[in-house]
Amino acid sequence: MSDKPGGTSNASATGFEAYDARPWTKHYAEGIEPDLENLGCDHLGDLVSQASREFGASPAFTTCLPTGTTGTLTFAQVDRLTDQFAAYLRHELGLKKGDRVAISAQPRPVVSSST
Length: 115
Prior knowledge:
The protein is an alpha+beta fold. It is built from 4 helices and 2 strands.
């Protein structure tokens, strides 16, 4: 059986080859580095926790609706909400380390806290 057009097999294909090639970097302006410096965090959850420790009571997200209504989440609230969401994914849905989750929603603070 073949995974590639033309009949050749590629048993090591991961499905991420196009992503791994990073084709978007050819559109970066001159002098723009394609990689970020190390932020000192292993994953996004670490970054959220670190931000909570440093900026806990400061606003992380604010939304302003056309009606004039506003809502704000602090870094500490975002940290708590993301921990609760992670607990739901693990304990209620049974997801394990390495499982992937896609979230499709409108960009609002309540959705952003799901990261």
